[in-house]
């Protein structure tokens, strides 16, 4: 039973005490899924540039298209992303992009829970660094003025190869002072690692450690190209990791983030989709399945990542990576009511052999099509696959107009 924003009671026979009853016959209730790394407005570039090498992809397609992104475009792209998340069972996400005030507007309307960061890139230029700090401060003030407990501010230094050490340390201090997460891309590709080492003489994590940028407020996306000793360094510093298996495979980042070693080091690992331009969906069910398969294939070991652990990564471990495991990530009395319901009366979830196979069914067989109800903070955002907070037809129309202008500009 939900009261206000919280889970008030769990059990049978509560029906008569409730004002509103949602029929759960034939349904599985799960904690809402948590996407720890995305660039929401990139839904506008979904499918626009695929099957390309990362540098060509960025330089020839993504960056030129992004140059034409207006605040209104980012708002509509974010709204599309919110609709996709609600319809695929995600209730919380961590975002990094620009025009974040507009992303906040979309999230506020949609009713999702989000951590929003402005992606800082100073390219080692002091004047640019100052301007980026100013934009970060402005987002901080803006989100505070919204007064929403669902929408939280985060820091978003893009990466160690795009931000000066001064900026990385400023960000760390700002995060500390304002109790915020510091979200950054770390060691995503082999080329990034090799180029970085050539330039700085040390590896990316070693560098972040050396300049004193690591902290337990840092959420590092990717971490594909890290050594065992770097994993130990991350663990010691209390850094969390956002693992994005689909994006890493699609962009051929090479290898796979060393998850078993990260677990051993006590690192909180969440799952992320990354932006829709490099995935191409925000589907966390697909991400769970690909995650489990990637690590089995990589280690030649079918037991290396089981279904329960994979589901944990998309729920309670994702919450831990974001530092909110006391508020969300599991179905417990007192936690925020972020819940999804999956319809089992579809072919892909049949037969269910018993309680002990349900988790396998969820990770290896379930899809967004099974999600029929999504609740955040006790508010119903979708029921029987009907969106309650977003006019999907209007959003689709706006997005298709914006996409045409973007790509043909
Ligand atoms: Zn990213």
3D structure, described in words:
By secondary structure, the protein is α/β, with parallel strands linked by helices. It is built from 15 helices and 15 strands. It has helices at residues 54-66, 71-87, 100-110, 126-146, 165-177, 190-200, 204-210, 228-237, 245-250, 259-264, 284-299, 307-314, 316-321, 358-365, 392-408; strands at 2-3, 6-7, 27-31, 33-38, 90-97, 113-120, 151-157, 181-186, 218-222, 240-243, 269-271, 339-343, 371-376, 379-383, 386-387. An eight-stranded parallel beta sheet has the order 4-5-6-7-8-9-10-11. A five-stranded antiparallel beta sheet has the order 3-12-13-14-15, with helices on one face. A two-stranded antiparallel ribbon has the order 1-2. Helix 11 packs across helix 12 (307-314). It is globular, with a radius of gyration of 21 Å. Bound molecules: zinc ion. Zinc ion (ZN) binds at residues 37, 39, 185, 221, 274-275.
List keywords for this structure.
binds zinc ion, 8-stranded parallel beta sheet, alpha/beta, 15 strands
Structure at a glance:
The chain has 15 helices and 15 strands.
> How much helicity do the residues have?
40-55%
SSE sequence, one letter per element: EEEEHHEHEHEHEHHEHEHHEHHHEHEEEH
Q: Give the class from helix and strand content and strand pairing.
A: alpha/beta
The proportion of strand residues reads 15-25%
- Helical segment count: 15
Radius of gyration: 21 Å
Q: What is the secondary structure topology, with strand pairs?
A:
Elements: E1 2-3, E2 6-7, E3 27-31, E4 33-38, H1 54-66, H2 71-87, E5 90-97, H3 100-110, E6 113-120, H4 126-146, E7 151-157, H5 165-177, E8 181-186, H6 190-200, H7 204-210, E9 218-222, H8 228-237, E10 240-243, H9 245-250, H10 259-264, E11 269-271, H11 284-299, H12 307-314, H13 316-321, E12 339-343, H14 358-365, E13 371-376, E14 379-383, E15 386-387, H15 392-408
Parallel strand pairs: 4-5, 5-6, 6-7, 7-8, 8-9, 9-10, 10-11
Antiparallel strand pairs: 1-2, 3-12, 12-13, 13-14, 14-15
Zinc ion binds near residues 37, 39 and 274.
